[in-house]
Amino acid sequence: MTDHPDGPTFIDNPHAPDIFADEATGFFLAGGNVRITFSSYRVNHISSPGPVNRVVIGRLVMSLHAAEAMHKGLADFIERMKAKAAAAPHGTTLQ
């Protein structure tokens, strides 16, 4: 996300955790806030083959306005990455 000139200063936190989710499992709007539930696939290795479960790993709650801005930013980013991938030599990894 970009820094807004009239908003608060952006301070990067190098110790902020990275969270991996396999999917956004559900969306819910309540009180003007969008609630997004994320899940990840987990295998129970007590048996072989182990059963796979979808486990909730976190929830993100944002105002509707902030969620709309995230949607636009993410859609723009995905389109740029698709364009770069189409233009890149086959087998090239984009970062």
Provide a short characterization of the protein structure:
The protein is α+β, with helices and mostly antiparallel strands and 95 residues long.
Please give the order of strands in the largest beta sheet: 1-2-3
Write down the oligomeric state.
Answer: single chain
- Going by helix content, strand content and strand pairing, the class is alpha+beta
Rg from C-alpha positions?
Answer: 18 Å
What best-fitting shape do the alpha-carbon axes yield? extended
In terms of per-residue confidence, which ranges show pLDDT below 50 for 5 or more consecutive residues?
Answer: none
Share in helix = 25-40%
Portion of residues in beta strands equals 25-35%
Mean pLDDT: 90
In whole angstroms, how far apart are the ends? 16 Å
H and E order = EEEH
Q: Total strand count, please?
A: 3
Tally of separate helices? 1
Record keyword descriptors for this entry:
single chain, 3-stranded antiparallel β-sheet, 33% strand, alpha+beta, 3 strands, 95 residues, 25% helix
Structure commentary:
This protein has a domain at 23-87. The chain is built from one helix and three strands. It has one helix at residues 64-87, and strands at 23-30, 33-43, 52-63. 0% of the residues are buried.
Protein topology:
Blueprint: E1 23-30, E2 33-43, E3 52-63, H1 64-87
Antiparallel strand pairs: 1-2, 2-3
